[in-house]
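In response to reviewer comment 3 from the previous cycle, which asked for concrete evidence that the modeling workflow produces usable outputs, we include below a single protein chain processed end to end. The sequence was submitted unchanged, and the resulting structure tokens are shown without manual editing.
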Amino acid sequence: MVFLHGVYPGASSFEWSKVYPLFTSEYLVIAADLLGFGESERPSPGLDADQHVQALADAFREMLPGEAAIVVASGFGAALAAKLAAQHPELVKCLVLLAPEGFDPKRQRVPRGIRFLAGIPRLNSFFYRHAMSRQPFVHDWLLQFGFRNATGIDPEIVDVISTCASQYGAEHAMISFLRGRARYDVTRQLSRINQPTTLLWPESDKDFPASDANLIVSSVPYCRAIMNSEISPLGALECPENTERLIRAALGPIPLDIDEIAA
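The workflow returned the following structure tokens.
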């Protein structure tokens, strides 16, 4: 069972640290750092989508020879997991995608000003080092893009994420992502995903309209969405118990309606 984190300043496998231990008695669990994030190498420039997927495929073959993994991924990590499943189907048993991002190439959640600064050489590194990697920016980023409410943002979470964001070379992957280097047309891959796929979708969230979920469900042959009001992009940190429950619902004999799950 492999957990993949999303993409944001200071992203790492820490995102799943409150959830993946709950599955270790049943599965061989791997919480991975995407290349350029966490404790991984930090190449410059950051990787594009094809390079990320190739790196994941190589890692899967090395760590799980001859095995297919359950892949649980969030944010833009879900877009990379979808590409991995489509291009290397022998490596992926099923997908559980939490608040997936990057599936609509026209939808940009990152403010235009930040994307503009990311495209200016030298200034982008200065902005990252003196703003994006600092705790106030990380807190505001998490509140705006990761958590549903401020009470869920433990100071320890901000401290860990800002520490990751401040590591040497951490800016390469994030600036590369903001410049669009890792983005690709996910919609072209969806029909090629033949593994059972479950979307854990934030309900009543303007950044995650139900129409986007419906489009993915209609495009992936074996796909369904579980809508839940407690899901957030960083739900694994904000509501780990709910996230665990929904992942188990996705992996078990699965009711399609959240009320049935709660019952």
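DSSP finds twelve helices and six strands in the chain. We consider this sufficient to address the reviewer's concern, and the full set will be provided in the supplementary archive.
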